[in-house]
Records
---
Amino acid sequence: MDGDNGVVEEVLVARTSRRTEAEPWNAQSPDNSAQNRLLIKGGRVVNDDMMQDADVYIEDGIIKQVGLNLHTPGGTKVIEAKGHLVIPGGIDTHTHMQLPFMGTFAVDDFYTGTRAALAGGTTMIMDFALPDRGESLVEAYHRWRSWADPKVCCDYALHVGVTWWSDKVGREMQELTEEHGVNSFKMFMAYKDTWQLNDSELLASFKTCKQLGALAQVHAENGDIIKENSRKLLSLGITGPEGHEMSRPEEVEAEATNRACVLANQAGCPLYVVHVMSKSAADVISSKRKQGHVVFGEPIAASLGTNGTHYWHKCWRHAAAHVMGPPLRPDPQTPAYLMDLLANGDLQTTGTDNCTFSASQKALGKDDFTKIPNGVNGVEDRMSVLWEKGVVAGKMDPCRFVAVTSTNAAKIFNIYPKKGRIAVGSDADIVVWNPHATRVISAKTHYQAVDFNVFEGMEVHGVADYVICRGRVVVEEGNVRAVSGMGKFVPKLPHSQHVYGRIEERDRANAPHKVERAAYDGPVASLNGPAPSSAVEDSIIPASSQEFYTRGPTRSGGVNLHDSSFHVSGAQVTDKSPKRPSVKVNNPPGGKASGSFW
Ligand code: URQ
Ligand code: ZN
Ligand code: ZN
C-alpha cells in the first residue's frame, strides 16, 4: 500500500497481533452522514480542569453538545464509552517526520508517523521546518508544507528553525509569523558548524521573537564543549554510543539551559526549552520559573520512559538506537524525577522528538559515534507511557495527564480551545481512552516504520480504543483506519495570552526608569591625565617588594595600572585594612560540576 499518493484508506490488523497491511478499505466519503454525526455515550469526559460523566455529540467535525440525555438526529453513529475516559486528542509538540539529517532521512514520514500517532491517541503533531545554514526560512517552510500536506493523517503545525542569523532571517521570521501561521522558532545551541548560534545571534533572535509575539524555543546544549569532548573521546579510541553521552554530560545541557534562560529574560522574551532530558536542566527551569521567568519545559516520552544506561549495552545496534541529542541520561532516577516535575507544574508539555532511523541508517556511525544519526521513536507510545509512568505510578491524576499531553500545548501555542479541550465548538479530536487495558510495546507490533522501539517490552496501561480526528473515526477498537492527506495544517497565531499576558505585565511593572537628580558639578578628571590628586598616592600602603610587584609610579606620578594590585590572599595595594575580603564560590549552574574525565 503506497501512502504517498492521493487519499487512501486502509485497515490495519488490530495491534494485538503482528502488524500486517490489510486490504485497503474503499475510501469512505468524509461527508457520509452516519460517519458525520457521532455520539460518544456513557463515558467520563476529562479536561485539564475537571472531569464529568457526559455524552459528547459531534457533527461536521466539531463538538456540538456535551452533557447527559442529549437530543441527537437520526442516523447518528453511537460509540459506547462506558468505563472509558473521553479525553482531548493528544498533541505531540515535537516531531521530525522524514527529516533530512546527518546524511540520511528519518524513516518515519508524514504518513507512517501520523498514522502511528493516531494509533496511540495523538491527533495532532507539531513538526519543525529546519532550513540549511544560509537557506531561506520561508523556502524551508514551503518545502515542509509540500511534504506534509499530501501525507498527514492528522492535523499538524510547524515550528521553524533559526539555523543561522542575518537581518534577512529576522525579516523572514516576521513574514512567517504574519502570513504563514508560525508562532514559534527553534534556536540551536548545539550542532556546531551547522545550526549552532552564538550568544549574540541568540539574543538577536530572541529580540525578534519578542517583537513578533512569537515563542523562542531552544535546543539547549553547549555545542563547543560537545565538539571538544568528542574529539578527545575519539582520540582515546572511544567510538561507540557510550561516547555520545560522555561527550555531553548533563551539566552541558544545564549550562546551556541556564544561559538560554538568562538571554531570553534579558530580551524580555518567553522561552520554551525543548527535549528536557536531565534532572539538572529541569532544575534550572524550575528555579527560573520560581524567579518569575516566563519559561516552559518540554520533557519527551523517551526521557520520561527510559534512560541512558542503554548506551553501555553490549549490542551496538541496541545502544545506537538510543542516540539522540541531548542524550538520555544514565542516572536511572531521571525519568521519575522529570515526571514529578511534570506532575507538579514545573514542566508543562510532552513531546517525543520522534526522529527515527533504522539499523542500517544508525550504522553510518558504526565507527564514530558523532556520525550516528540522532533520534528516537515516541510518537505512537507517548500517551501510554505517560499514563503508565504518570497516572498508574500515582504521580498525576487524569486531569493533569490531559494537561501535559494536550491542553498545555494548545494554550502555549495559541490554538486553545480549538484544540486541547472537550467543549462545544472545539474540534472533534477525541480519544476514548481505556485506562485498564494493557499492551506490551514492541517494534514487532508497532505501526511506526522504524525497526526499533526504545520502549521494547514495556507493559503499559492505557490504550486508545477509539480515536476521532476532526470528527472522523480513525481508530475503532484498536483498528487503525489512517487516511493519508486527511490532516490539515493548523496555523498558530502570535501573542498567545497564555505566554505573552505575563510578559506584558512584567514589562510594564519592570520598565527601567532613570533617577531624577541634580547634575554633578564637582571637578572632573581629564582623560588619560595624571591622577586627580596626590591623595591616592598617600593612601597607598607602603608595599614590601615581596608582597606586591610594583614598578613605581608612572612618569606622570600615578599608580602604574599594570602593576599587580592583588595578592593571592585577596588583599590589594590600595587596601587600608589587612582583612581579606570573604569570597563565597557558588556551584556552577546546574549543580556541582560533574567530575571531569580529562
Ligand atoms: O535536535 C533535534 O531536536 C533534532 C535534530 C532531532 N534529533 C535529536 O537527537 N534530538
Ligand atoms: Zn533539538
Ligand atoms: Zn527535535
---
Amino acid sequence: MRVTEKAPAKLNLSLDTPMRYIDGSPQWDMVMISADLADYVTVETHEHPATIKVYTDSGFLPNDQRNLAYQAAHILRSRFHRHEGVTIHIQKNIPVAAGLGGGSSDAAAVLRALNNIWELGLSLKELAEIALTIDSDVPYCVYSRLAHVTGHGEKIELLPDQPHYWAVIAKQQISVSTPQILRQIDYTRLSHLDNQHLIECLKDGDWKHAIEYMDNVLEPVTMSVYPEIKRLKDKMVSLGADVAHMSGTGPTVFAICHNESRAKRIQNSISGFCRDVHVVTLL
Ligand code: ATP
C-alpha cells in the first residue's frame, strides 16, 4: 500500500527558552504555526526487501539512518514489531537547515502514513509521544497546526484556527547550525517573552494585537553572527509587513501580511538579493 502525506514547514510565531534542562537541552516556550510550503512524502510498504529505503530529490540530504524520515519508520517498525520493508520518497520543497523544521515534518509525515498503512489506530497524541524520541519539533509537526508548544517539545496545546494570512518566507544563502546556536545562548542575557498574552489574543481571534506579542528571543544570538538576517527582517518591515521575525534558530525570516498583494510586493523587492523567497498562506 502506498500513501502520500503533505509535510508543511513550521514557523515560530514566538520562540522563548526559559531555561536549560540538566542534560543541557533547552526548555521551550513557543507558539508555532504551519505554512503552505510543503514537502511531499510518499510511503510504501512491501514484504521484500525488508529494509528501509529513503529517496529524495535533494542531492545533499542523507538517505540512511541520519534522515529523520528513516528514523520515524525505524521507530514505528520496532515499536509495533512489523517486519515489512518501507520505501520513502521525499519531494523536497522546504529549504534545508533553514529553521523551518523540514526534516521534522518529513518524519511526522512518515509516522502518520505508517499509522494509516498498518492500521495501528494511534491518535495524533500517541503519535506525538513517539515523535519526541526523534527530535523536539516532530511532535508539533504530527499536528502541523497553530499550537503552544512547551517542555522538550512534547507539551502541545492546540489553538483555534485563525483567519487566512499570507507569509513571505525568505532564506538567504547562509547555513546556520542549530546545535551551535543553542550552545551560544547565554541564559542570563535573554529577555523573556510573555507568550500568555499572545495565546490570549489568538484564543480571542484578535490577530491584530497578537502580532504585537510575536517575537523570537534567539534573534540577537543568531543575528550577532549573521547581521544580514537582521537587515532582511528590517527590510521586510520597512516594505510594509505586519510583522517579520526569524524562524527557529534561523536563518529564515518570515513576514506576515494581511493581503496577498502586499506579500507579493515584498517578495518582488527582496528577490534581487535573496533568491529563495516564497509567498504562501498560513495553515
Ligand atoms: P532544526 O531547527 O530542527 O535543525 P531545520 O528546519 O533548521 O531544523 P532541517 O531542514 O530539518 O532544518 O535540517 C536539519 C538537519 O537535519 C540537516 O542537517 C539535514 O541534513 C538533517 N536532515 C535529516 N533528515 C532530513 C530531512 N528529511 N529533510 C531535511 N533535513 C534532514
---
Amino acid sequence: MERLDKRLAATGRWSRKEARELIRSGRVRLDGTVCRAPETKAAEDAPVAVDGVPIGADRPVYLMLHKPAGVVSSTDEPGERTVLDLLGEEYRNIGLFPAGRLDKDTEGLLLLTNDGPLAHCLLAPKSHVDKVYYVEVDGVLDETDVEAVRRGVVLGDGYECLPGALELLSEHSAHITLHEGKYHQVKRMLAARGKPVTYLKRIRFGPLELDESLPKGGWRALNDGELKGIFSQ
Ligand code: URA
C-alpha cells in the first residue's frame, strides 16, 4: 500500500505538491471513486485516474513534436491550446505529457511520452541531459558572451548557471547548449548579458535531434535509433 500522492508523484508527471493539489481539487479517482485525501493508502494494483485518464498507461508511447509558438507545454490549461491538442485523437487520452517544458512562444523539439520513469530520469537535474537551442537576440553577440556562457552566466537573481556553450552563427543568432533546464533559462541568461531573446527554438534534447522535415505542429513516433538513444541516457 502506498499513499495516493506518492503514487501519482512516482509517475514523474507531478511533484508531490502538485499531486496533493490535484487530489484535493477532486480530479483524481481511486478505484473509480473521487478521492480528495492525498494520504489515502492505495493498493499497488488499484486503478488510479486523473481527469478520467488512467495513470500507469497500458502501453508506452514516445512522440517527437515540433512545437509551434502559441501552444502551451502543459496538458491541460483552460483557455489555452496545449500540445495535446495538436495530436491525433488516438493519442489524446493515453496519459501523454511533455518531458520538460518550452515557453509558449518557444518552438522546437518536445518529447511527449506516457513513460513517467523515463521522463523522470531524463529530467532529473543530475542527468544533465544536453539541450541545444537556436536563438536570435536583440543586440550584438560577441566573444564576451561566448566566454560568459562557457564560465556560467550569473542570472539577475544571483543564480549561477552551469557552464554551457555558445556558438555564434551571426551577430544576432547563435546555438546555445545547456546542461540544465531552469525556468526561462535561455531568456534569462541572455537578458543578463543585455541581449534579450527575440526568437527561440530547441533543436536538440539529449540524443534527440529535431526532425526538420516535421512541419511546425507536426509529430511522429520516435524511430528505433532514437528510442535506443533515450534509453541509454
Ligand atoms: N529557455 C527559455 O528561456 N525558454 C524555453 O522555452 C526554453 C529554454
